[in-house]
Amino acid sequence: MDRDNLPQHIAIIMDGNGRWAKRRHLPKVIGHRYGARTVDRITSHCARLGIEALTLYSFSTENWKRPADEVEALMNLLYEYLNKKLVKLNNNNIRLNAIGDIQGLPEHVRKKLTEAINKTSKNTGMILTLALNYGAREEIITACKKLTKLVESEKLNTEDINESVFSDQLYTKDLPDPDLLIRTSGELRVSNFLLWQISYTEFVATKALWPDFKVIDLEKAIVEYQNRKRRFGGRENTNLHTI
Predict the structure, then answer these.
(1) Which of 16, 96, 199, 227 could bridge across to 209 with cysteines, CB 3.0–4.6 Å?
(2) What is the longest distance spanned by two Cα atoms in the chain?
(3) 97 is catalytic
(4) Of 2, 4, 5, 15, which is the active-site residue?
(5) What's the pLDDT tens digit per position in 205-230?
(6) Domain residue spans of the chain
């Protein structure tokens, strides 16, 4: 792994907690709990490597369709993670961020999330972004509505709308687009995640289920990224690769 050619921003679709638990004849919540341990491990290693931004697809707008007890367990696990890992985030100089419809989260989770964001806001190291109650289509629709209001209030001319102006209305306006997107569990789809932002992102899919995803798997994905020739629409194209 070339330490001088690291991706600036890594995004991860953390998939496979349920299957991990099912294979072991365990409740799904146990899979999510082991998945949270992986979050801790991978976040810490990315910070040590010097990755500038890490975005984790933590809870999608579609995840509300899951059984109520599983959703409640996920929310409680999120609260527990924020409560227990705040000191470690500060010790690692990590700044916490969140994207998505945060107001749609349960009140106790929302308050704990806001507290954690505020208490890490002065940190100058890696930005850890949790995508919570997040859906890329909804994000794009929301951005369109914001632009419409700006035009209607004559604060913006329609002719001045371009990619940069549009990007400024997204949840990720303060983040660079991801250089590398990793999806675990062998699935080959983006599942309504950062649809605008991943236009030129390199994709790596790994067969490891998220609870089994280790530091070595992260480094293999980074090496795969480093072996790509990024043309950004030029002559050579790179395809999704499974490791």
Answers:
(1) 16
(2) 59
(3) no
(4) 15
(5) 999 999 999 999 999 999 999 999 87
(6) 9-135+177-242
